[in-house]
Write a structure and sequence with these properties.
homotrimer; alpha+beta; four-stranded antiparallel sheet; two-stranded antiparallel ribbon; 2 helices
Chain lengths: ~100, ~100, ~100
């Protein structure tokens, strides 16, 4: 099993940002990131300290959204830098991992 | 791009635990964790070996829930210790990452 | 607080694969993995470059699914190898973490 070093990036958004589609399209079209996945949280709070939850299902439009993608480490660091320049991204973290091919 | 070392914690719960709101409130109020996100899985099994799934959508109330937060490494380890003292938390994992500011 | 080294695995699928239940059952029955969680993304794209999203809620059946589990590092690497032999798994990544008991 061949293994390659990669870096996983996670970008924190909220549904109220309305930035998800633009960021996905940007990763795909402008950065040639070969895969990305967005997850919606069921509850969360962020820098504002405000709780975001879905207790009123379908009435809450400000749930946390996290976008994750991975690639060669230096490329991921460059893409994170670009995302911060082009979008209103508050929190971004990343960590090293291995891809198994 | 300034980068800081952080530790990401992940706490495993299930919906049937009914502990999610208390834990989120605890992280926010008692531990000054600046952000936390809860995700609901669509299927899972844990220490009990019992499968939790959502095949009967809206009828299943025991889906897996994971809570994630990150902060300075030693602080996260202390918070995990406190969570284990105050709540019925079975599984907790953590790993090192970097925050990009 | 006792801490053990573990490796977290993440396997990328899509709903259209219809492999989720078989993989969960396989991890539980054949590999003795003590816990696994599956998450459904709200949007994503993969090797095909095709966007998968849920903009037509309940009409989209090709959303991204990620399965995560953790165990002792060598065991996880062996299970990933087996999953690639038995299932049509495109992308698999893993990273080191710590379990807090």
């Amino acid at each position: 099993m061949k293994t390659e070093a990669v870096r996983i990036a996670r970008v924190y958004l909220t549904e109220a940002d309305h930035q998800l589609n633009d960021i996905m399209q940007y990763l795909h079209d402008n950065e040639s990131i070969s895969g990305a996945t967005a997850y919606r949280g069921v509850e969360g709070y962020g820098l504002s300290g405000k709780m975001h939850d879905s207790s009123l299902i379908d009435l809450s439009f400000d749930l946390p959204i996290t976008v994750e993608f991975f690639d060669e480490s230096n490329n991921v660091l460059m893409v994170i830098k670009h995302l911060k320049e082009h979008f209103n991204v508050s929190q971004t973290i990343s960590w090293l991992a291995e891809q198994h091919q």
